[in-house]
């Protein structure tokens, strides 16, 4: 993990420079164009956090399947860590999205398909964590039921991603850049990819440290 720390030591300041100095603000139409152009810079970590939430919950799905197949409790711990980090980045994505939504949409929250499905996903996995805490004394039963919950819960993750394509939504389709109000220049696309990469490296560090803590707690119990 020392190598990861060294890499992050260089990546984070470079990423901040690219976001706040090098990348041009998006040219938004309308009277609020200049304000939105600067607030838009929050989108680099908003999108990166949402991506890591979905990736983390996908990892929880994989680890849960591995546990049910092999009955190795370490896979259950990895699934639990994945869910916790998925929740962390999901909440961060929603929070940053709300900050962006206020000047863009006039409100911090709206029942848009993307926001609604994401909130449902977060609530489901909060239930997952609550359930695990209720069954601390029965590790095998907790692991088995948690695995099924992680598998079922993941069904909402692709729905969250596809929601703005399935239903009418005011949320821009960032990946395809097809929104009339949000066009990504090559510079913005590069910084977004760099931000996702940087935060993904940070995720690896968080996953490793959290897993070690979970494993230590299990050995003590």
Helical amount: over 70%
What is the overall number of helices? 8
Instruction: Count the domains.
Output: 1
Please compute the radius of gyration using only Cα atoms. Answer: 19 Å
Give, in order, the helices and strands. Answer: HHHHHHHH
* Largest sheet report: none
Report strand %: under 5%
Low-confidence stretches: 177-181
Shape: globular
Secondary-structure content class: mainly alpha
Number of strands: 0
Determine the mean pLDDT: 87
Q: What distance lies between the first and last C-alpha atoms, to the nearest angstrom?
A: 26 Å
Entry summary:
The protein is an all-alpha fold.
Account of the protein in words:
By secondary structure, this protein is mostly helical. Helix content is 78%, strand content 0%. It has one domain. Helix 3 packs across helix 8 and helix 5 packs antiparallel against helix 6. 31% of the residues are buried. Residues 177-181 have low confidence and may be disordered.
Which helices and strands, and how do they pair?
Layout: H1 2-22, H2 33-39, H3 43-70, H4 73-105, H5 113-134, H6 139-153, H7 156-166, H8 186-220
Helix pairs in contact: 1-8, 3-4, 3-6, 3-8, 4-5, 4-6, 4-8, 5-6, 5-7
């Amino acid at each position: 993990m020392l190598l990861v720390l060294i890499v992050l030591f260089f990546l984070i300041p470079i990423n901040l420079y690219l976001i706040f100095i090098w990348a041009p603000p998006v040219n938004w139409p309308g009277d609020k164009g200049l304000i939105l152009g600067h607030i838009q810079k929050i989108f680099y970590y908003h999108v990166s956090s949402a991506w890591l939430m979905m990736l983390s919950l996908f990892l929880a799905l994989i680890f849960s399947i591995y546990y049910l197949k092999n009955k190795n409790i370490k896979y259950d711990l990895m699934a639990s860590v994945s869910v916790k980090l998925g929740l962390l980045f999901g909440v961060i994505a929603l929070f940053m999205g709300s900050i962006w939504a206020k000047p863009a949409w006039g409100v911090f929250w709206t029942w848009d398909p993307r926001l609604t499905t994401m909130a449902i996903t977060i609530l489901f996995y909060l239930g997952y964590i609550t359930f695990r805490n209720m069954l601390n004394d029965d590790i095998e039963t907790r692991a088995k039921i948690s695995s099924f919950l992680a598998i079922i819960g993941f069904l909402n993750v692709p729905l969250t991603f596809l929601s703005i394509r399935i239903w009418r939504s005011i949320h821009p389709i960032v990946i395809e850049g097809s929104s009339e109000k949000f066009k990504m220049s090559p510079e913005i696309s590069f910084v977004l990819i760099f931000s996702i990469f940087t935060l993904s490296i940070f995720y690896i560090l968080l996953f490793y440290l959290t897993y070690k803590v979970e494993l230590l707690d299990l050995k003590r119990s």
